[in-house]
Write a structure and sequence with these properties.
Length: 173
């Protein structure tokens, strides 16, 4: 498993030139919870947001994201169904995760990606607050069968509460 917080901040390196062409600032996820692009810059007054789409990525390594050519960096044209992990209108981090019957399982602190490719979301790291994290640790929820992304919460089936597991979070985080 790989946490997205370990991906954000990675340099993006062009293997053709060996040049660092950016740094991952966020991930764009589709409705099937798959990474579709890496956001490189959020955009400012005189600069538009840029990204590298998954198809242009050679590898998502431990120390860098590699791409074939510098022209793989494109202006961001995110689809309305894409969600950002950290920012934007459709962000995931910080949303409460609720069951259909109204039980809050926690707040999304991080998202885990599959270890092999790093493309598919396989679960959530949930927090119940700083004090609870220190006393009890955070919780891990494997990806449920269905997840409804709302404006103010993620909604999962009732049986998802049975899949919650305790995880150890080092104090230095």
């Amino acid at each position: 498993m790989r946490r997205t917080r370990d991906v954000i901040g990675l340099p993006v390196i062009c293997v053709h030139t060996g040049k660092q062409v950016g740094e991952v600032t966020d991930l764009l996820l589709d409705e099937d919870w798959q990474v579709q692009a890496f956001l490189l810059g959020a955009g400012h007054w005189f600069q538009e947001a840029t990204c590298v789409e998954w198809e242009d990525v050679i590898a998502l390594g431990e120390d860098a994201v590699t791409i074939k050519r510098e022209d793989a960096i494109k202006p961001l044209e995110a689809k309305n169904t894409w969600k950002l992990l950290l920012g934007g209108r459709h962000r995931i981090k910080g949303l409460p995760l609720l069951t259909v019957n109204g039980q809050q399982l926690g707040v999304v602190e991080d998202v885990y990606l599959d270890a092999k490719t790093g493309k598919k979301v396989i679960g959530y790291e949930l927090t119940e607050g700083f004090i609870s994290d220190l006393k009890e640790g955070r919780k891990w929820l494997p990806m449920p069968d269905s997840v409804k992304v709302g404006e103010d919460a993620l909604i999962v089936p009732v049986r998802a509460s049975e899949a919650l597991e305790e995880i150890f979070v080092p104090k230095e985080e």
